[in-house]
Amino acid sequence: MLGRGMTSDDEPRDATRGGVNRPALPGDPPEGGHGKAPLLIDDPDSMTRAGLGRELAEAVLRDVIAMCDPARRVREALGDPTIAERLAGRRWLALAVGKAALAMARGAGEVADGIAVVPAGGAGALPAGWRLLEAVHPVPDARSVAAGAALRALVASAGDGDAVLALISGGASALAELPAAGPAALGELVATVQQVMAAGAAIDEINAVRGALSAIKAGRLALAAAAPVVTLAVSDVIGDPIAVIGSGPTVGPWLASPGAPVDDGAAATWRRARQVLARLGLPVPATLDREPPVRVVARRDHARVIAPMASAAHAAVAALAARGVAARLVEAPVAGDVAAVADQLAGEPGARVAWGEPTVRLPAGHGAGGRAQQLALELARRLRGTARGALVVGTDGIDGPPPAGRPSPAGAWVDGATWDAIAATGLDPAAALAACDAGTALAAAGALVVIGPSGINHADLVLID
Fold it and tell me: For a FRET experiment, which of 49, 184, 372, 421 has its CA 20 to 30 Å from that of 306?
């Protein structure tokens, strides 16, 4: 179960936050424009006999996007008495940040004042009380700083009788930023984080460095509020640690001891960031020269992951089953070097659904593509000459930085013919792998899958047979 649902007997939510949303009902269309209608296969058994197939795999991807609708997850969570009682009778101020922000804000409904920060080009209608800001991902710029300042001002405006609803999803780390050393220090922050990413650091290490360099990450945004903060998060991080999702802007050590005086954790974040930089052999930016002072706080906040990272993988298994394909879920997330992940996936027989976040170490002067495309090309090499196929995508619909002159892909479909099809265009697929230029190679063979921003954001998804 991805969340706790409402029933027809649930009462409308408190009028102080405006609007009443009914629970999602079976047969409802997907909300927020997530994906196309599912593709119907007249004879799913024939698709099973022929292998996975690109048409079926892309249809399942559309099913997954609809099944993982973040608006529904938010509605379900707000109907839970544990959360509802924390918000009842209070004026709602709200923020939604990340690749799923638009849908999550729609799930929350009308608020007294709210800001949704979405990726550029992801604008859409919002309920009453919400404002929309567009920013960029994966590298923050001036728009991200403006969004970060707006969020902090919103949170700081909350009084004792209010409640702050924070809706966080993957991508929030870049979409909203406010450097601890001031807006002018954005260049230092970006350069440091990019160096950490290029060194192949794990997501928790990347976010530790972000948190130490930011005025709104690692719980610091919540500390600007006099009101209690309720955080609902959609996970894109292995293990679903809520403090890591979006760099945890509203998550701190006080959550473990409600109402009790605790260290706010800033010094611990600082030490962790310096450890990461030392391990990677990277220079320490001036912002991290001095350890922050200990600050004791007492808060009664609440935080919950409402959709785990594996949500899309579970949905894919169900969608395949509905289309007549029995696929096994790879329970453990795939992680580590992308080539080793490809060895693991290609070395096992049968239809499977895998999920996770492989690591790609970028060489100097690397080419186009993201980790899903890199994994897809690694798999193309291993599936060469077989009747097997694989779909590898980022569930947010955007894999890696935007390529020049063509739409951003979600990932790619590869099969036994893909490797030679690339070579037939005059490109060397092995050289493309070495240069992390998988996007160029896969585009030449027509293997890229383009769907646009999906409105969800979980693990990378692999369907392979």
Answer: 372
